[in-house]
Amino acid sequence: MQKLYERIPSGVERQDFSLNSIKKENNNLPRAAYFCMEYGLHEKLPIYAGGLGVLAGDYLKAAHDLNLPVTGIGILWRQDYTEQYIDAEGNPYDIYPNYNYEFLNDTGVTVTVTVGGDEVELKIWHTDHFGNTPLYLLDAGKPGTKHGDFTARLYSGGNTDRITQEIILGIGGIRALRALKIDVDLYHFNEGHALLAGLELIREKMEQMNVSFEEAWEMTRRQVVFTTHTPVEAGNEKHNYDLLFNLGANNTLSYEQLVKLGGDPFNMTAAALRISFISNGVSKMHGHTSKEMWKDIGNRSPIISITNGVHVNTWQAPEIAYNQENGLWEAHMKLKKELIDFVYQKTGAQMNPEALLVGFARRAAAYKRTDLIFRNAAVIAPIIEEGKLQLLFSGKAHPDDDIGKSIIKELVQMDRYFKDSVVFLENYNIKIARLIVRGCDIWLNNPCRPLEASGTSGMKAALNGALNLSVLDGWVGEGVEHGVCGWLLDEIPHISLEHADEDERDLKALYHILLNEAIPTYYRNRPQWIEMMRASIKMSSEKFSSERMIKEYYEKMYQKAVNSPQDQ
Question: Model-level pTM?
Answer without folding.
Answer: 0.93
